[in-house]
Amino acid sequence: MLMDGGTGVFSILSIFLVIWYIVCLGIGIYCFVLFVKLARRGITALDIYIGKHRNPNNPNNRIDQEL
Description:
Oligomer: single chain
Structural class: mainly alpha
């Protein structure tokens, strides 16, 4: 019995596609985590900006004050 030579190529290709899928999934999750961190930092900066401009005569509105 002779095996068809093309079958091995398709099995190797499918292994690479599964690995590629896992890599893309990992990169997607990593990008989502970075986006969430950026969004949280942006919300914090916006809160500080709104707080400083809502009441500019407040003595607690110092530039070096942390949240």
